[in-house]
Amino acid sequence: MATRLKRASGTRRLIAHIIDGFTLWALFWAFVKVSFTEPGNGYDSRKLWITAFVLTVLYHWLCNGLWGQTPGKMALGIQIISRSDSKQIGFGRAAWRLGFTMILSFVTVGVGALIDVAWLLWDRDRQTLHDKAARTLVVEVGHGNPDPYGHLNRNRNRALRSISRARSGPPDRSDRGATP
């Protein structure tokens, strides 16, 4: 159950967010240099803002939906899980978690985002408001865990069992059908 898991500290979450910010910045500028090269015309600021927004949404939604971790969270050994069953949050919950933050920030002209993040400082479960809205927890799982949910390992083990069965051949059935 989720209550036995160690909650990620605010410091770890902040550092993970900073790492993700630098990662997004690098991805954004690499994408811009490849896609928006217009000699002599400069860059269209509207296209840049839209690109930054879409890239940010996709980055957080895909990473959190697939793995429960962004690269920053992976580096700090923290992961987002469902509060109810301690399992992967999936794309729907990742979208709601991100959407809640964006809506709150937009409606309150940024003030809500500050309150959202600051909320974990006094919350007993170290949850932000978007964690509460999406019913998620951010917990410590260890550093650089490439497959936090064990899907790849489970499939790998299943494949290894199949290979070993194939190598050993079919079971010996010589004693079947023989009458004593």
Q: Descriptors for this entry?
A:
180 residues
Give the gist of this structure.
The chain has 180 residues and is mainly alpha-helical.
Mean pLDDT over the full residue set:
82
Q: So how many helices?
A: 7
Specify Rg, calculated over alpha carbons. Answer: 23 Å
Structural class, from secondary structure content?
Answer: mainly alpha
Task: Give start-end ranges of low-pLDDT stretches.
Answer: 151-156
- What is the number of strand segments? 2
Give the helix proportion (percent range): 55-70%
Your description of this structure?
By secondary structure, the protein is mainly alpha-helical. 58% of the residues lie in helices and 6% in strands. The protein contains seven helices and two strands, in the order αααβαααβα. The chain has helices at residues 10-35, 45-67, 71-76, 90-107, 111-118, 129-134, 151-168; strands at 78-82, 136-140. α1 (10-35) packs across α2 (45-67) and α4 (90-107) packs across α5.
